[in-house]
Write a structure and sequence with these properties.
Elements (H helix, E strand, L loop, with lengths): L10 H11 L22 H15 L3 H14 L4 H13 L3 H14 L4 H13 L3 H14 L4 H13 L3 H14 L4 H13 L3 H14 L4 H13 L3 H14 L4 H13 L3 H14 L4 H13 L5
Helix pairs in contact: 1-14, 2-3, 2-4, 3-4, 4-5, 4-6, 5-6, 6-7, 7-8, 8-9, 9-10, 10-11, 10-12, 11-12, 12-13, 13-14, 14-15, 14-16
Length: 301
């Protein structure tokens, strides 16, 4: 049997495709918000309403929580805590602008309320206002420089604004404080990938997998890095493992299909790419462009 031939389309084209399939995001990381517990400074109706808001919030009844915090604010308009917690309820409902307004008011009433800065930073992050998020995380870090969580969040904001070197510096500090957090390694791996430091990215993804072997995105992104290093067999294995964890993840099928296409395994590649578009039709245009580039490129021995 003749040796299988590799397609001629470039690693640069593969890199472009994989980059489109794996945008830098935190996504895999759930933002941790700070809900202030009952405080002793409130009294009477304000305290009762505040406590009700906390109960509703913890039960996932965010609209009811907002109503309770409204009553607390009416009864104690100069208290910062109800504004902070109402902002969290708005945040959970996807109302980030309303959340920011509440955090603004909480900070105006109590400029030392670091939890409100942190929560507002998260809201800005969701809005992709990364510079504003960084400023808020800066305020929290001034008061609590040993918080690996806030350092990690600021690192993600730096990465979102494409300041990858600064992101890595913060990830490094966060790792020193919490070496068992898989999200730090995963996210630092993404930053290294964006800087073209693929070996470092692989090391971080590997550590993330050791700490959390159930995260498909760690396998997927390590596979992407292996692909760009030309280690296609290792990449395919990682894509396989990722799909065992998330069998309906269209991006992983697309990535594996792109690598198989690169290896000249056209039939297998087309099956993966077809499956990707079945799961997520929005990928069709990118995949058709990849197939077009492959057809236009001569194969080589």
């Amino acid at each position: 049997m003749a040796a299988e031939r590799h397609r001629h389309y470039s690693l640069h084209a593969l890199n472009q495709f994989l980059s489109m399939q794996a945008p830098l995001k935190i996504i895999f990381i759930g933002l941790v918000v700070v809900l202030l517990s009952p405080v002793l400074s409130l009294a009477g109706e304000a305290q009762n309403a505040f406590n009700q808001g906390i109960k509703f919030y913890r039960a996932g009844k965010f609209k009811e929580a907002i109503g309770a915090y409204d009553r607390a604010i009416k009864a104690a308009p100069t208290a910062a805590e109800p504004y902070n917690n109402r902002g969290l309820a708005h945040y959970k409902l996807g109302e980030s602008e309303a959340a920011v307004k509440d955090y603004d008011e909480a900070i105006k009433l109590n400029p030392k309320l670091t939890d409100a800065y942190y929560n507002r930073g998260n809201a800005y992050f969701i809005q992709k206002q990364y510079d504003r998020a960084i400023k808020d995380y800066d305020e929290v870090i001034k008061q609590n420089p040993k918080s690996s969580l806030v350092l990690r969040q600021r690192a993600l904001a730096y990465a979102g604004s494409r300041q990858f070197e600064k992101a890595i510096e913060d990830f490094n500090q966060a790792q020193k404080l919490n070496s068992k957090d898989p999200e730090i390694y995963y996210s630092r791996g993404l930053a290294y990938r964006r800087l073209g430091k693929l070996d470092q990215a692989v090391r971080d993804y590997t550590e993330a997998i050791k700490l959390n072997p159930k995260n498909a995105e760690s396998f997927n992104n390590r596979a992407n890095a292996y692909s760009l290093l030309g280690k296609f067999d290792q990449a395919i294995k990682d894509y396989d493992d990722a799909l065992k964890l998330e069998p309906k993840n269209a991006r992983i099928y697309a990535n594996r299909g792109a690598v198989k296409l690169r290896l000249g395994k056209s039939d297998e590649a087309k099956k993966d790419l077809q499956r990707a578009t079945e799961i997520d039709p929005t990928l069709k245009e990118k995949i058709n462009a990849l197939l077009g580039a492959d057809k236009a490129s001569p194969s080589k021995d």
